Amino acid sequence: MSDKKFIDGLLVKQPRDGAPEYVIAQISMKREELIAWLQQQDGEWINADIKVAQSGKWYAQVDTWKPDRQRGGGQRPQRTGRETGYGSRGDAHTPLSRPPVDDFADDDLNF
């Protein structure tokens, strides 16, 4: 397994108490630090996974997965949302009862 790679200037936090159920994470960006980090990266896209540490702290880790072209790969193993054993908000005290449901279309977004 490769070394973990993190995004400088990007912080991920659990939603504040009382946030609506559809808010699944808060992201804070320290603009100058994030821009400097981005300028050092190659490629058009940078993918990241939002994870929950054993301590309960949320973080973003760069997803460095690449398809194995020699083995005909190109598809990732499908994720079920049960990998962490946490609830949809990553609450370390709430076991996942069911995978999250995407029950709205992109057209419902107001941006």
Give a structural overview.
The protein has 111 residues and is mainly beta. 8% of the residues lie in helices and 16% in strands. It contains one helix and four strands, in the order ββαββ. It has one helix spanning 31-39; strands at residues 10-13, 26-29, 48-52, 58-62. The chain has a two-stranded antiparallel sheet with strand order 1-2.
Task: Give me a quick take on this structure.
This protein has one helix spanning 31-39; strands spanning 10-13, 26-29, 48-52, 58-62.
The SS-based structural class is: mainly beta
Question: Rg, please?
Answer: 16 Å
The percent range for helix content is under 10%
pLDDT averaged residue by residue: 78
User: For the largest beta sheet, what order do the strands appear in spatially?
Assistant: 1-2
Residue share in β-strands? 15-25%
- How many helices? The count is 1
**Terminal Cα span:** 37 Å
Number of strands: 4
> What summary fits the major beta sheet?
2 strands, antiparallel
Low-confidence stretches: 84-88, 92-99
User: Which geometry do the CA atoms define?
Assistant: globular
The sequence of SSEs as H and E is EEHEE
Architecture blueprint of SSEs:
Layout: E1 10-13, E2 26-29, H1 31-39, E3 48-52, E4 58-62
Antiparallel strand pairs: 1-2, 3-4
Characteristics:
111 residues; mainly beta; two-stranded antiparallel ribbon; two-stranded antiparallel sheet; 1 helix; 4 strands; 8% helix
